[in-house]
Amino acid sequence: MITIEHVSKNYDDGAHLAVDNLSLTIETGTTVALIGPSGCGKTTTMRMINRLETPTSGRILINGQDVSKTDPKELRRSIGYVIQQVGLFPHMTIARNVATVPRLLGWEKAKTNARIDELLDLVGLDPAVMRDRLPHELSGGQRQRVGFARALAAEPRIMLMDEPFGAIDPITRVRLQDEFRAILKKVSKTVVMVTHDLDEAIKMGDRIAIMRDGKLLQYDTPAEILARPANDFVRDFLGQDRHIKRLSLIEAHTVMSAPRPEATGASVAGDTSLHTALAIILGNNLPGIDVVDTTGARVGYLDRDLVFAAQE
Ligand SMILES: Nc1ncnc2c1ncn2[C@@H]1O[C@H](COP(=O)(O)OP(=O)(O)OP(=O)(O)O)[C@@H](O)[C@H]1O
User: Fold this and answer.
1) Hey, where are the domains in the chain?
2) What is the DSSP letter of 259?
């Protein structure tokens, strides 16, 4: 668990308050997305967790231990850090890049090598092909995968991700978001990510922290924030389509009614989002669709009214 207690950060001898009395608790195994307008203090907040910045006041605890009292180098090795431009060492092979922290920690060669292969596999890169390549021989998306693998290498409990998908084209970005989210759940990390992209925060965050002028405006689950913005600023920030965005968080099986006697002609799986289900209903000009299980058996029915009622 990461606990941020009344943390403020002044730059320029107090002339500028980048973070203003911020308190936030990040539960172990969850992902928190920090979002807000440019300059609101997201990156500063994140960088205070691994001591790349020092709070002017307040304190940050990791599992009850004050980070200001831990050795900064050890702290940083125990926290995975993924940044937008990846920061791979250009003259080192992919394998050596991934092995950066294990080497610093003095892992045995065999263990390190096995870990490199395991991680490249995990992030969807073929170790046999990628191990000996140099970073410039990879696409931007592949480099981001390597950066992610490198951050995971020494099995950190915490991952900090600063706009990890910022430099990636939109199609690759969506795929990487899905894959990284699945991996982070599988390996059960506590994640703090900074993003400019509301859809990304909604998709990746178990909770979202919305900041403005160094202050925390709202901290809650995406569903709750979209349903009940704390104030006008948050409401505007979320946009007119917040109700539609919220549909992407609700799964069909949670609102479906009993199956109809006759098939409707179109179907979705129970874990399909209402956003997708509605798109299929509208796209096929149907009043409703079947919800089916993995065997294709009809287990429920979903129509426009059920979808609309769900987002109220
Ligand atoms: N090293 C520094 N010296 C002085 N001011 C700084 C420094 N780093 C950040 N700031 C200022 O602190 C404020 C918060 O910066 P920060 O980078 O945390 O914001 P952000 O929300 O991450 O912004 P962005 O979305 O644009 O990356 C900004 O006004 C910024 O200009």
Assistant:
1) 2-240, 250-310
2) P
Return the SS3 of 108.
Answer: coil
- pTM, to two decimals: 0.87
The residue whose CA is least distant from atom 20 of ligand 1 is 39
11 strand-pairing partners: 16
pLDDT digits (tens, 9 = 90+) for 224-237: 999 999 999 999 99
CATH 3.10.580.10 assigned to 250-310 = yes
Q: Answer whether 48's CB lies under 8 Å from 60's CB.
A: yes
In this structure, what token pair is assigned to residue 110? 């065999």
Single out the residue of 172, 150, 28, 154 nearest to residue 94, CA to CA.
150
**SS3 of residue 200 by DSSP:** helix
Residue with tokens 């195994």: 29
Distance 30 CA to ligand 1 centre (A): 25
User: What is the ipTM metric for this complex?
Assistant: 0.94
Homologous superfamily, domain 2-240: P-loop containing nucleotide triphosphate hydrolases (3.40.50.300)
**How many A from CA of 183 to the centre of ligand 1?**
30
> Which tens digits make up the pLDDT trace of 105-154?
889 999 999 999 999 988 889 999 999 999 999 988 888 889 888 988 88
**Is-contact 146 97, C-beta < 8 A?**
yes
